[in-house]
Specification:
Structural class: alpha/beta
Shape: globular
Number of domains: 1
Oligomer: single chain
Largest sheet: 6 strands, mixed
Strand content: 15-25%
Number of strands: 17
CATH superfamily: FAD/NAD(P)-binding domain
Mean pLDDT: 94
CATH architecture: 3-Layer(bba) Sandwich
Length: 312
């Protein structure tokens, strides 16, 4: 019998699955879509933040910082492409900010989890309560999964972030605007393959399946991005996409046991990619405290033919 079921095949769900499998927990992951990282995880910026602007002492900040301590071994052993390019915030240089391919990152975690004995299943939509301990990493639908277990303690709504990719522009660092409590603002950053991306917007909506890019989004992003990189003012995008961040209504980073058979890992907003390894360790300690981890298996995940920003 499976000890734990993880619902959600984004970067957080796959990281949790790997952390549990490394501790010998019999784990199965269910992803509703036909591929991993098919929702928020595969449509974000791909930036790995250092947490320099995070609120000290908050759980989100602690898990971001812990992830930074864990990430080196993971990306090296699993061959995850990461470029440590650093960032600029005004005239301030922030070393350690990095970029990656978030889809490859997620797939590599899943492959390592399978090598450790986990069962990863895509195309499985969980619509009823499972007869096992469930870790709810369902992103946009985490509140719906919680309702299956009688938990109505939080609500998730989609915050749309629209991005535009440009080619032929030179950029070797991430360019950051001053962040706000609500959003990190419109960034400009390089990709692993040499494109330049500007975004995201931050548009709160109700439809969890509206992944469209609004007609007015380019003008909104271009105006703010050009303040950071003036060449964007006259450049035409070669690709655009929208990501939906699972924002919590009045809550953030809901990581707690709701009942004997449910642990919620919900309202993980745009820092989910950055914090995923810390989140996974935190959850694994809730389930199998103090259990030693097996070594990371040196799995190899073939890179996709197209860059992640064209697959979004």
């Amino acid at each position: 019998m499976t000890d734990v079921a993880v619902i959600g095949g984004g970067v957080v769900g796959t990281a949790v699955t790997l952390a549990l499998a490394r501790r010998g927990v019999d784990t199965v992951l269910y992803e509703a879509r036909d591929r991993l990282a098919g929702a928020a995880s595969g449509s974000n910026s791909g930036i790995l933040h250092t947490g320099f602007d995070s609120v000290p002492g908050e759980l989100e900040t602690r898990l971001i910082l812990r992830s930074a301590e864990l990430r080196g071994e993971v990306v090296e052993t699993l061959g995850i492409p990461v470029r440590r390019c650093g960032a600029l915030l005004g005239d301030r240089v922030i070393e350690g900010e990095s970029i990656t391919d978030p889809v490859h990152y997620t797939r590599a975690l899943a492959a390592a989890a399978e090598a450790c004995g986990a069962d990863v299943r895509t195309g499985v939509h969980v619509t009823e309560r499972l007869d096992t301990l469930t870790v709810n990493c369902a992103g946009l639908y985490a509140d719906d999964v919680a309702r299956l277990y009688g938990d109505e303690s939080f609500e998730i709504y989609p915050r749309k972030g629209e991005f535009f990719a440009f080619e032929g522009l030179a950029l070797d660092r991430i360019l950051l605007p001053p962040p706000t409590r609500r959003t990190k603002g419109v960034l400009v950053f390089p990709t692993l393959d040499g494109a330049v991306v500007a975004g995201p917007t931050a548009v709160d909506q109700t439809d969890k399946e509206d992944w469209s890019v609004r007609p007015e989004a380019l003008a909104e992003v271009r105006a703010k991005a050009a303040e950071l990189l003036p060449a964007i003012a006259g450049a035409e995008p070669v690709a655009s996409w929208a990501g939906l961040r699972p924002a919590g209504r009045g809550v953030n980073y809901v990581i707690r046991r709701a009942s004997a058979d449910l642990i919620n890992v919900a309202a993980i907003r745009s820092t989910g990619l950055t914090a995923s390894l810390g989140i996974a360790e935190y959850v694994a300690e809730m389930i199998a405290p103090g259990v030693p981890q097996a070594p990371l298996p040196p799995v190899t995940v073939e890179p996709s033919k197209e860059p992640w920003w064209r697959r979004s």
